[in-house]
UniProtKB/TrEMBL annotation:
It comes from Haloarcula vallismortis ATCC 29715. It comes from the Archaea. The keyword Transmembrane helix applies. InterPro entries: DUF8006. The keyword Iron-sulfur does not apply. This is DUF8006 domain-containing protein. Residues 4-94 form the DUF8006 domain. The chain crosses the membrane at residues 12-34, 41-61, 73-92.
C-alpha cells in the first residue's frame, strides 16, 4: 500500500533537528539578502538566527542520523559566533 505524502515528508524530516532547520533558514535568508547588498539587513538577520540558536533548548538540537553538526554544543557555539559577528556587520553597513 502506498504511503500518503505527509507520511513521506514526516519520515524524511525525522532525520533532522530544529538546529538543522534554523541553519537552513539562515542560508535561505542569506540567499534572499545578498542581491540587496545591505550589510545592515544581513547583520539583523545574523543576530536573529544567532539568538534563536542560543536560546533553543539543547534537547531540541540533539543530533540525528542526518544532522549537519555533531552535537548540540556545536549548534550553540555557532549561534554565539553569529552573535559576535552580527554587530560588526551591522556597524559596517551603510544602508
Amino acid at each position: 500500500m502506498l504511503a500518503s505524502p505527509l507520511q513521506l515528508i514526516d519520515s524524511f524530516l525525522l532525520n533532522y533537528t530544529i538546529g538543522d532547520v534554523l541553519l537552513l533558514g539562515f542560508v535561505g535568508g542569506l540567499v534572499a539578502i545578498l542581491p540587496q547588498r545591505s550589510l545592515r539587513m544581513l547583520g539583523l538577520h545574523t543576530i536573529a538566527l544567532g539568538a534563536l540558536l542560543v536560546i533553543t533548548p539543547a534537547s531540541a538540537m540533539e543530533p540525528n542520523s542526518g544532522s549537519v553538526l555533531a552535537s548540540s554544543f556545536q549548534y550553540k557555539l555557532f549561534g554565539l559566533v553569529l552573535l559576535v559577528l552580527a554587530p560588526v556587520l551591522y556597524a559596517v553597513g551603510r544602508r
